[in-house]
Amino acid sequence: MKKVLASGLLALCAAGTVLSGSAMAAKAASEKHAEAAIEYRQSLYQLVKSNAAPMFGMLKMKKFDPEVMKTNGMRLEQLADMMADYLLVDTTDFDVPTDAKPALFSNEADVNDKIAALKKVAMDIQAASATGDEGAYAKAIAGLGGTCKSCHDDYKE
């Protein structure tokens, strides 16, 4: 698990040398660029998953750990800040394997809205973690599930 997270983090750090660093939608310049963009996008998703999954488990089991919620909520907030840079590199001009629907690259405003919703829910999770109220915990985590599902429904094959 640590190796996967470390390689994902390394891939995200290296992305700055391949991607423009801009939150504006950009076309991949070559097949190599498209492949790298997909690798970075998938690495980002793995980091999101590694932070969201424990909270979804808490919700399912109704057994909450406020410290995990606080930490993972903070991480999700930070990942949301990076998302547009990695999601909006249009790879559709190249025959590269991806689960991203082409609509991801033509709906920049909606994608940015969904990213903002993820950031807000991550902040809500952090705030809920400080309340001691399990109802607030459950509501905040359920909001994360809805936010993830919204993006998957619209932009993942």
Automatic annotation (TrEMBL):
Q: Which Gene3D superfamilies match?
A: Cytochrome c/b562
> In the record, which residues are listed under signal peptide?
1-25
**Which Gene Ontology terms cover its molecular function?**
electron transfer activity; heme binding; iron ion binding
| Protein residues bound to heme c | 148, 151-152
* UniProt name for this protein: Cytochrome c556
| Species, as recorded | Marisediminitalea aggregata
Entry's InterPro entries? Cyt_c/b562 (IPR010980), Cyt_c_II (IPR002321), Cyt_c_prime (IPR012127), Cyt_c_prime_subgr (IPR015984)
Give GO terms for biological process: electron transport chain
Supply one GO CC term from the record: periplasmic space
- Record carries keyword Zinc: no
Description of post-translational modifications: Binds 1 heme group per subunit.
Q: Which UniProt keywords apply?
A: Electron transport, Heme, Iron, Metal-binding, Signal, Transport
Name the source's superkingdom.
Answer: Bacteria
